[in-house]
């Protein structure tokens, strides 16, 4: 079956290949789920930071409008 495990090992343990196959799929599923969770967490943090930046930009636009009004009066 492979270069590292001799053929007789597979013949003595029926169903071994199926169990290894299922275990590898479960490991792959766990890795994918963890990656998606990490991606969701990072995207949520980036979105929150962008909201803060947008709020600061809106505040600065408001202050700029007030400064322009004051300069027009002067």
How would you explain this protein's 3D organization?
- The chain has helices at residues 7-12, 16-73.
- With 74 residues, the chain is mostly helical.
- The mean pLDDT is 86.
Tell me the total number of β-strands.
Answer: 0
Average predicted local confidence, pLDDT: 86
SS field, number of helical segments: 2
- Largest sheet composition: none
The percent of residues in helical segments reads over 70%
The H/E string reads HH
User: Beta-sheet strand percentage?
Assistant: under 5%
First-to-last CA distance: 88 Å
Radius of gyration: 30 Å
- List unreliable stretches of 5+ residues: none
| SS content category | mainly alpha
Shape, principal axes of CA atoms: rod-shaped
Structure, briefly:
The chain has about 70 residues and is an all-alpha fold.
Task: Tell me the layout of helices and strands.
Layout lengths: L6 H6 L3 H58 L1
Using brief descriptors, characterize the structure shown:
74 residues, mainly alpha, 86% helix, rod-shaped
